[in-house]
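Figure 2 data, in text form.
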Amino acid sequence: MSRLAALASLLAAAFLLFYVGARTPQPRSDGPASRNFCARCALAEIAAIAPRPHPVGSPANAAVRDYLFARMKLLGLSPRIQSADSRQVMNFGKDAWIAVAPVQNLVGVLPGRDPSLPAPALMAHYDSVPGSPGAADDATSVATILDIVRALRVRGAPERDVIVVITDGEEPGLLGARAFFDHDPAASHVGFVMNLEARGGGGRTSMFETGANDGAAIGLFQRTAVAPYSNSIFPFLYRYLPNNTDFTIAKKRGLPGFNFAFIGRQFDYHSPSSTVAALDAGAVQHMGETTLGPAAALAYSAQLPTRTPDVVYSDVLGAGVIAYPTVWGWAVIVAAAILIIAVAAQLPGLERPSWSALIQGAVAGLASLTLAAVFLYLARQATGVGQGWIPYRPLLARFPLFEAAMVLTALAGMVLGPAIFSRGERMASGWIGLLLTGLVVSIVLQAFVPLTAFLVAWPTLVGAACAALIAGGWRAARLAWLWYAMIAIVALAWIGGAFHGLLQGLDIAPACAVFAWLASLLLWPLICPPPRRNWVALGPAVLFAVAACAILLGMRLTQPWSARYPRAVEPLYVTNGKQAWRASLASTDPWTAAYLGPGARPLPNVAGAPDALIGASAPLQPAPPPVAISRGPDGSLVVRSDPTDRQDALVATFTISQPALAVEVDGAPVSALTARRSRLRIVWTAEHRPETVVIRAPVGAQIDVAYSAWLSGWPSGVPAPPPLTSTVMPWDRAGSSVFIGQERLRF
């Protein structure tokens, strides 16, 4: 078999193994008396929860609350409603952001035999964003928890209470979770938290975040999760991302726990297309199977997991979880080093490693990494799709095609490195040089970030084992090559899963090059060129590159939009009381062009307007400004809003030239603007009562206030937008009226 055919066969087999492991399970239809999770039961709940958008404070959300209250009562949870005016303060460098909204959490308890024991809490949120039914985010999680409770009741009374917390106001800023953990008496009874989330509409559920000192918790997860999908890199990376869930509040309270979510089919995330019809029923089943085991173990255990040192862990193609103390990572590295030394020792005299051969192998591997990163960057640019959630949607609409192009691009870089920088006279010696680079990187990671070292150390160890099998080069026995193929297929499938997870989770295509380099540790005998015939190795690189270019060209020449994957549009009516504009997201699609009409232009200087708008003049509908700015008796600045029932949200941004002396929001003191932070943004959601901000600042300080009040519905007397076509869907607050304004004052 030629090298190209062998390489293609290994890659195809690895992809097949990855695909089988990455598939979601068939949804079960067990009845109410089953001890197992039933996706069909959960889907019925989702259909009832998410027929329409239900943001916090809306009548639709109140209807969902009432439905869930009744369902929790039938499940024997004795539910109650926790009502609170909640606020959440988040700091971003010099800026601070405050979210404010009234929330109504649902809290229930499945009684245990010993209610004095600390209780596990099952947590999810029931509100959606304004423009999405939220069948996935987060109706799926709520429905999963309800069916977990049903399954636990079938199994008998748990050892300890199980608290069910269905929060409100997660989307505006984790408001329900903060209200629960700050003020609800049940919060003091919680000893472990399992939070369920969703970011998309399908895929396997990953356990992507834990509490601090998670060693014992991972042991429980290792024993109980079905088809687990997790590793210790997930929580390590997540702490550096600007993302939060309700679990963030629990973790800040020092509580141990797990955070679960699926992120496949991200086109449907926060989208009108997030319906029960578009939801992957297998993803619902996998979420239930992944979480029921740990939930049951917590409910029926004599002791909840205690704080123990973090461990290294990773699933292996969903078959199970390997976990060990971080110090054991050195044992993996030592084992890889021993195998590499053994390979070098058993080579015949003429093939013993030389410095030049070792350097060639190392350079070839680094070239694979560099070329793959460059090619992936260029391929991402070639899509013509910009950065950001809305611009990225054309790729999400055809993500499998995009991912195929990225995989082929990475493979082209992986193969091209050895073709350029390796002469191939000493294949085994070059392989040793390549493995030594993996060993060095593993040592560095183990020394500084040991929770991540396995990502390189495991492929290095497996690559060294493969090299030991066929250290004799092309003279090795067929049985050794057979063992090599089987080991390489499993390892490549595992690396492919990591590639898929990173590409799906983050729009940083060049970072995926590291997986091309890891694959080269295993595939070196098939990508190393024959002696003095480097052109032979160029063949696979050219084939991979041509295939990737063909996919990317096809994507550029065709439209991604369809009835299943429609384009997002957001028609708005924007006015400052003196002028008015038909406005929308900066888009050039035919529907938006017809809506805006002639004269559309960017609106960067419209005070208080959302970012990235284009607009054209529209008939002015007179309306009083929703915000009044005045001086207090002590000279302070008072910003007051008297909202109407139509007001869905009020956004106010304060920029101050000097640190404020004091700031109060609705009577409560906050630290924003009083230190080095110079800008404060406050978002009031569904607050149909007066809101007030009082700022006291030094004499001479200057403050700019910009605001936008979002009102549901279109003004009367203003022509409505044209009807939507089948390939266009309204996004977020489409159809809203926005009253904007800006003032500059000096103390």
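Caption note: The chain has 20 helices and 24 strands.
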